[in-house]
C-alpha cells in the first residue's frame, strides 16, 4: 500500500512539473463573431474571406474593414524550477513537521485487537444471587 502511494505521488508530481513548465500558444480565427478555426500547434486556417492587399503600391485606396480577425493567446510556462527553502522560518518548519507526523499517524492501524481484561480471571461464583432472592430478569 505504501509503495503504491509513493508511485502515485511521484506520477502526480511529475505531471505537475510537466504542465507548469510547458508553454503553448492558442491561435484562433474569427469570421465576424463566430469562431472558424483554432489550433494549438500551428497557425489557424483562414476562411478565405479576407480582403486581399493590393499589389500596386502606387495606388492609395482606403482599405475596407475585414470581417475576419485573428486572436492569439500565449501561455508562458515557468522557467525557474529551483525553489529555495532558505527563507523558511523555524515556526514554519515546526508546523510542517508536526502536520506530517500527525497526518501519517492517522492511517496507522493497530497490529492486533487489544482486549484490556484478557489477563484477569472472573470472580468465583459462590452462590447464584438471582436464584437465592428469586429475582429474574424478563
Structure notes:
- The protein is an alpha+beta fold and 138 residues long.
- The chain has three helices and three strands.
- It has a three-stranded antiparallel β-sheet with strand order 2-1-3, with no helix packed on it.
- The longest helix has 20 residues.
- The two termini are 51 Å apart.
- The mean pLDDT is 80.
Radius of gyration: 38 Å
Count of distinct strands: 3
| Helix content percent band | 25-40%
Derived from helix and strand composition plus strand pairing, the structural class reads: alpha+beta
Low-confidence stretches: none
Overall pLDDT: 80
Order of helices and strands: HEEEHH
Strand order of the largest sheet: 2-1-3
Please work out how many helical segments DSSP would assign: 3
Largest sheet: 3 strands, antiparallel
Distance between the termini: 51 Å
Estimate the global geometry from the Cα principal axes.
elongated
Strand residue percentage: 15-25%
Amino acid at each position: 500500500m505504501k509503495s503504491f502511494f509513493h508511485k502515485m505521488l511521484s506520477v502526480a508530481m511529475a505531471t505537475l512539473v510537466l504542465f507548469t513548465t510547458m508553454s503553448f500558444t492558442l491561435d484562433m480565427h474569427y469570421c465576424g463573431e463566430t469562431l472558424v478555426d483554432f489550433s494549438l500547434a500551428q497557425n489557424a486556417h483562414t476562411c478565405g474571406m479576407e480582403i486581399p492587399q493590393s499589389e500596386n503600391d502606387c495606388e492609395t485606396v482606403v482599405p475596407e474593414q475585414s470581417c475576419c480577425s485573428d486572436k492569439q493567446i500565449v501561455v508562458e510556462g515557468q522557467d525557474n524550477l529551483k525553489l529555495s527553502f532558505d527563507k523558511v522560518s523555524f515556526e514554519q518548519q515546526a508546523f510542517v513537521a508536526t502536520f506530517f507526523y500527525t497526518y501519517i499517524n492517522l492511517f496507522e492501524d493497530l497490529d492486533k485487537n487489544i482486549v484490556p481484561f484478557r489477563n484477569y480471571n472472573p470472580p468465583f461464583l459462590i452462590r447464584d444471587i438471582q436464584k437465592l432472592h428469586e429475582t429474574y430478569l424478563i
